[in-house]
TrEMBL record:
Domain Ig-like as annotated: residue spans: 148-217
PANTHER family xrefs: IRREGULAR CHIASM C-ROUGHEST PROTEIN-RELATED (PTHR11640:SF31), NEPHRIN (PTHR11640)
Cellular component terms per the entry's GO annotation: cell-cell junction; plasma membrane
Keyword Zinc: no
Region of interest: Disordered: 273-323
Membrane topology: Single-pass type I membrane protein
Alphabetized GO MF terms: cell adhesion molecule binding
Compartments reported by the entry: Membrane
Cross-referenced Pfam families: Ig_3
Protein name: Coxsackievirus and adenovirus receptor homolog isoform X2
Amino acid sequence: MSGTWILACFVCLSLAVSGQVSNDTRAFPVGGTATLPCTGVPYDGATKHWEKNPVIPIKFLVVIQTPLGQSSYGDPFYDETNIEAAGLTGRFRVTEDLMTATITGVRATDDGDYRCASGPSQIIHKFVAYKLDSVGIQPSGPVTGYVGGTFDVTCTASRDSKPTPSFNWTKQGDSSFTATGATLRISSLTMNHAGTYVCTAYHAYARDTASVQLTVSEDMNYCSGAVAGAAVGCFFGGLLVGGAAVFLFLRSRTAKNGGKKDVGNFADRQYENVPHPNQRVTSQRPGSGSDEYEVPMETIQPPQPSDDYQELRPAVYQSLQKH
């Protein structure tokens, strides 16, 4: 009996390819839930079904029909083989009368034509799964530019965006500024270019924005020279302060010592056993009977007046002069 039912169903569905046709394009975000209505397609009293990418013979996803000898349709019959082939396992469900089909966890591969038909009536939904997220700007900013320089930033979106997005640029508070393309480049910057720039990424089904703040400063070379000049000035200033500190330290030390030189210590030295130039020294000659003998002495010249002697104590200096 079930074999006869399936065969009869295929025959009926194969014949139901003509009649009223309504096309409807519907777009759903990847990861969301899609709802497909079967409006305008009443149950013809025999069969009604949903299929993906209609072909002949029909590979229905789900079907209802009125069993022989009964006046109303039975429970929906899901063809799990075709559902698996469509990549919809566990995600495709319909109401009892097939008036609404639901796809959960939408995937990019769910794109295609979904057809609901009964008798001479049908509706085909052109299903589009889209994605647009992770819109950002590199560098992310805030960005500092310099007068005469170039401002260069790029707007990006996730690589798996679907369909491929386009980009345009605007400037907050300046309705006259517009630019297209992922990369924004402004050459010969002036102070008037400072502000907030907004990138809009968009396609037919979604759009998203990101912004970056631009600050314009004086010429970079001028700033670098000023910094370098300040550094050099600080260096020489440090040398002057350090030199002054050393000078004051030495001056303080000199004042503390009373201005005396180290050579002044010579005044405390004692001179002993300094024989007179005409004095003879006697001593016993070893191994001889003589008690004394003369030892010639080297003539020692008295010290000549010098700065060192001038520094000695006056009494010692006068004594040396007498000899």
